Amino acid sequence: MKQSVNYNLAQLLTCVLARDLENTDIVAYGLHAELGLGAALLAQMLHAPYLRIRHGLRAGSGLPLSAPAWSERMHQGWKQVDYWEEHPDMLLWGNPASPETFSTVFFIGGMQIDQWGATNLIGIRNRVRSTKQNAAGSPYAVRGPGSVGTPSAAFFCKKYYIFSLMHTPKVFVPEVDYVSVPGTNRLQELGYLDKRPRLCVTPLGVFDWDTRDGRMQIRSLHPGVSLETVVAQTGFNLQIPARIPVTALPTKKEIVQLSRLDQQGAFERLHEKMTHS
Amino acid sequence: MTEFVSLKKALTRIQPGDTIVFGGFQTNRAPVAFVQALARKRTPLRLSVLSFPNPLPLTLLHAAGQVASLQSSFNGVVLENGFTVPRRIRQAIETGQIAWQESDVYAMIQGLRAGAQGLPFMPAPGLAESAYAEKNRYQSVKSPYDGGSILVVPPLRPDVAVLHVQQADRQGNVWIADPLNDQLLAQAARRVIVSCEEIVERISQPTIAAVYLDCIVHLPQGAVPTSCAGHYAQDDARLHALLTS
To answer: ipTM above 0.85?
Structure first.
């Protein structure tokens, strides 16, 4: 396979996700559509033509990489949408017990992500006992945006992926302050032995939870990233395999398709965000 | 019978202490003109706002001191220059100024379904180990059919839903180009107020029939600066200014 040298970090992560998608997947995505929708469109173009894309409120395939249909910037832009999917219908999710599987794949971010693969979009706990800010007794130092439907999506979808635009000890913590999506420790207690995030992609590498004790391990590190860096930037002890592969670079074919579907520089903007945060 | 009323008269349908919910999703079709008029009311309204997730109406009412409590799953939007969290709402929660409950949006939708159907609860499997189960004291019941344990959520029954739509006809039926939560909100709420871009003689296939609606106000541009499909796009600069002021 020919490897491309002209790629950016956002494209690399999109390729990692795309390669893990298959024909039987039904993909939905939320924020940072570049990664989720980008990966789904790339997989459709290259190896999974029958993969289906269903997004919050819009359904279709072969659409250009663009913002969700509700954030309408173009006059009459809504006409590009194949059909509107109502929010309540969308939330039939991928419940395996329902004949209406909304999606089997979802992408989840977090203000915090822990060694068990739990995510937190709820908030950061106030560690200072008494400050002006928390005079009213609020437990939050920082209030997060909220979990949207990520807890139910992670539960119902066959495959869920975690992503983070930052890889720092503040994000990758031993244990999240509040649980949006539960990690392997809680899930195992509940009897869900096989339930875990499929992969986690960050600016430093690719990680998974396919370990005996359910803790996060390194799957590959991106070109130029040292083990020392990733260890220093992670707030817990990572499981380190005997041999650490380098994340496979995007191929020329992948880069050609990625530039076809993103003509407005979405990957470049995401790359900037990742390298400057 | 759905009444066509003035904005002033429609505003009188909101009572102090009401639980209120707004149509539209994220940055689309929020009933902004109605909400701005409501925010100008001098009577203290102490509203409980349900947000699905729809931050602008909440932000405007909170800035006017009219929000006592909030229930939502998410408070943020993606605008042209990135992800934006309404600053004052975040501060109000961090400093304990407003009572606040958060849940998974699926649990909230199941709650609305229970409300619309008059049921005492609705199963919402999948949340047992998230922080929401404990925080919101969601209970589990034993299924009488397969014996399994299933988490159930209480009904959500808003006193009033306010929707902004593209068209209403003389019979009081409405047509929505991009219906998102609107039908379920109209079914679950006790009263439904609609503002519309235009009034036409007859809609052949209404999105929501007149029987669900209480009153309609003709308010062209009534969702600005959020978008209204087929009429206008969202105004990112104004949205950003309103959400972060």
So the answer is: no
